[in-house]
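chain below, 135 aa
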Amino acid sequence: MPPPENMPAPQPNQNDGIMLPTPGGQRLLISLTAIALVSMLGWLVLRATPLVDIQAPPPSTIQFSLDINTAPARELALLPGIGPTMAARIVADRSKHGPFTSLEEIARVPGIGPVTLEQIRPSLRGLQTPPEATH
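prediction:
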């Protein structure tokens, strides 16, 4: 189909209305691109917080507290240093000897020593450390 009468035919070697930069303009574009890339690289290197690797994100920590005298074994197993076996021991001890009246009393459960007690201490509520006896 021929072009309409009032529309000029395209000319050979015409850049279809796209303005190509001059050699000086090309150098300016290259310089601005290089500055932008160096700035972005500097920002990535110098920023205060590291980037998160989406393939291996950092382990998340969840802060929670529970009542050791009422929590079921499945919740006790979530405490640091306590697994399903130790949680079952806590529930069995609680059933046999009654509720714990202090944090230190939890150490009566076989397998819970001072290290485990310190690990779970921040996650327990409702129990108080008995005051030290003064002489």
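The two ends are 112 Å apart (CA to CA). The chain has a mean pLDDT of 80.
thats it, cya
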